[in-house]
Specification:
Elements (H helix, E strand, L loop, with lengths): L5 H24 L3 H28 L12 H32 L3 H32 L10
Helix pairs in contact: 1-2, 1-4, 3-4
Length: 149
């Protein structure tokens, strides 16, 4: 695997997390507690692997960011999405950990209350993680994107 392959792998991990989070949500809505638990644990693991891959990629490219090649209205769409993604990505980590801790402790009423906030943010961060990849590397790559390290 080359350094330039890592963003696609990370986007795939975000996509898998998105499917697991959505499936876990639907499972608990249908009172399928074991399926919900399994999906959410798997989503947490996949998200942790993503985070390691993201940090590792940033280390390998020495923090250099990938330029966005879109212009005009699409640039506004991208940067608004990127800013909200970054902010919520930082916020979601402690929320996910707290929500999981409450479930592990068996405090399901509190878990449910926290999950009402955690679920939509985590889902949004996972979906927009895939979209950021698509915008940067597939749909609007910059002409001056540096070659892989």
């Amino acid at each position: 695997m080359e350094v330039h392959d890592i963003p696609a792998l990370n986007a795939s991990l975000n996509g898998i997390a998105t499917v697991l989070i959505a499936t876990g949500y639907l499972a608990i809505r249908g009172k399928h507690v074991a399926l919900h638990r399994g999906c959410m644990i798997a989503a947490l693991i996949v998200s942790c692997v993503f985070l390691v891959g993201y940090v590792w990629h940033k280390i390998l490219v020495r923090g250099v960011h990938t330029p966005f090649g879109g212009e005009g209205a699409i640039a506004w769409v991208y940067y608004i999405m990127l800013i909200t993604h970054i902010i919520l990505a930082m916020v979601i980590v402690p929320l996910v950990l707290k929500t999981f801790a409450l479930a592990i402790q068996g405090r399901f009423e509190r878990h449910r209350a926290w999950a009402r906030w955690t679920f939509p943010m985590w889902f949004y961060v996972s979906v927009t993680g895939v979209l950021v990849y698509l915008f940067l590397y597939r749909w609007f790559p910059a002409n001056d994107t540096p070659p892989p390290v």
